[in-house]
Specification:
This protein is of the alpha+beta class. It has one domain. Strand 1 and strand 2 form a beta hairpin. Helix 1 packs across helix 2 and helix 2 crosses helix 4. The longest helix is centred in the N-terminal third of the chain and has 43 residues. The termini are far apart.
């Protein structure tokens, strides 16, 4: 055993470090939770479920991942009321609508990409529906909102091209 004072000092330092870490984690978690709630309210306002849509419910933010400190990756779930696999035109119409709803709220933040998960198909006690993911680089979301001639069709073509290369972030219709 060492001197009793040294043990107390070491214990105090560990306690302070633990408290500082806990406070920092809670602040970051609270900021991300507030941001997710803001994004969900925008999605609910812009893309309500109901008659005339294929949405089972409004898209919702599943989580906001962080990469390398402050880089954000919003993950949005879109539940479709379709029994079959939806067509790419429908998928990218929803991708464009979701990006138009949430991207302005994330302006000024370091977003690297958007992960949009689509669930569809029969879902019940014995059967599980399918889930497919589309990943959109933030630069494509910028173009969608800034250029009037760049629409869902153009976005789809760009994601298809990026999906074929390994050097860029972009995913077209992979399993969740």
């Amino acid at each position: 055993m060492l001197d009793g004072r040294l043990e107390i000092v070491v214990l105090a330092v560990l306690l302070v470090a633990g408290l500082v870490g806990t406070v920092a984690y809670r602040r970051r978690f609270r900021r991300e939770s507030e941001l997710a709630a803001t994004l969900e309210s925008r999605l609910a306002g812009e893309l309500p479920a109901g008659r005339g849509t294929h949405l089972e419910r409004s898209p919702r933010v599943r989580r906001i991942d962080t990469r390398d400190g402050d880089q954000l990756v919003p993950v949005v779930r879109i539940d479709l009321e379709t029994a079959d696999t939806p067509g790419m035109k429908l998928v990218f119409d929803y991708v464009a609508d979701v990006l138009e709803a949430i991207h302005p709220e994330l302006d000024g933040r370091d977003v690297t990409r958007y992960d949009l998960e689509f669930s569809f198909g029969p879902d019940g006690l014995l059967v599980e529906g399918e889930c497919r993911r589309v990943t959109i680089p933030a630069a494509f979301a910028d173009r969608l909102l800034e250029e009037e001639t760049y629409r869902a069709f153009d976005l789809r073509k760009d994601v298809e091209q990026v999906d074929e290369r390994d050097d860029e972030v972009g995913t077209l219709w992979k399993e969740c």
